[in-house]
Amino acid sequence: MPRRTKLNTTTRKRVLERDNEKCRKCGHIEGLQVHHIIAVDGGGTDEDGNLITLCRGCHVEYEMFGLPKEMSFEEWLNFPSAISLRRVFAAKELWKEDMSAKNARNGIITAFQTMKPIELGNQQR
User: Fold this and answer.
1) Is residue 77 in some structural domain?
2) What CATH number does the domain containing 52 carry?
3) What is the model's pLDDT at position 39?
């Protein structure tokens, strides 16, 4: 198993520039982090093709929940973030502050599986 090391600063800057210094999932420009699509300890590398810019919120969402069953990473990028889904749930009074982590995860996965990709038109990500 490869040993986890800190990402090279030059590589990090190059990936941020490639991704127009914004989160590839939600478009945020603050709290940006470079994420390994396939984790180093899972066989991934620090090559640019395995790296993507995510904001802190989307990175945490991915680390906490992973990908819904049978969804590719690219498909996950095209679905609304959990932060957006939480606003939808709150508006419908379906999201409760005391909801357990398991129920929260199941609720988000169910929402991912029942939603259709959003139309972005000319909007860039």
Assistant:
1) yes
2) 1.10.30
3) 86
Q: Are 61 and 76 in contact (CB under 8 A)?
A: no
Q: What are phi and psi of 33, to 5 degrees?
A: -135, 150
Count of helix runs (H) and strand runs (E) in the chain: 5, 2
- As to burial, measured by CB atoms within 10 angstroms (0-12 exposed, 13-18 middle, 19+ buried), residue 49 is exposed
Asked whether the beta carbons of 81 and 23 are under 8 A apart, the reply is no
Number of domains in the chain: 1
Query: From the first residue on, what is the mean pLDDT of each consecutive set of 10 residues in the chain (125 residues)?
Result: 73 96 90 91 91 90 80 84 58 47 61 55 44
CA 67 remoteness from chain centre: 9
Q: Which two tokens stand for residue 11?
A: 């590589």
